[in-house]
Input
Amino acid sequence: MIKLIIVFLIFVSCTSLGKELRVLPMSPLNGCPWIFDVKVGPYQRLQNIDEDDRNGQKGYRFRVVTVVSEGHYSLSIDKILYGYEGCCAEINKTWDFNLHDFKKLFGLKGQNLGKKFKITKWLSPTSFEFKIQRKLFKVENLGDNILEFHLIKISN
Output
């Protein structure tokens, strides 16, 4: 069953600490076109949980999903909640990672950046490093509606 995906406008702003993109929640990608790549981050246990409660949420992790439809690549970030002993995984929230706005923010050129997007390593449950066009970036604040990006280095 395919749900309509509502894509929200992404507002771009800059700060002295890094560059930020506003990412707004969207409908989860159920029955999405073609999944090109999925990268899952480390598990994070929730604080102040009742260990004896077998029905409540115990933790979460994020994943970055690259999908392709009619030659166009796009990215989304999902927050997945887990229950007792890792059971009952469910997508809690999905955000659109607008590559067009990211491209403008950092002055990148070319088409289909999603195909060239490679996560190099997860730094924490809410941050990771990734590479696009020989540039290494760090993204922070997964789970918030504003992600902070830092250009770490440019390779030759």
The radius of gyration is 16 Å.
